[in-house]
Amino acid sequence: MNKDFLKPPFGLKDVEILERESLYKGFFRMERLHYRHKRYRGDWSSTVSREVLFRGDAVGAVLYDPQHDLIGLVEQIRPGAFGDPNGPWCLEVVAGMVEPGETNEAVVWREMEEEAGLTPDRVEYICQYMASPGGCDERLHVFCATADLAGLDGSVNGLENEGEDIRLLIIPAESVFAELYSGRFNNAATMISLQWLQMNRSRLREG
Question: Where's the Nudix hydrolase domain (predicted)?
Answer without folding.
Answer: 54-193
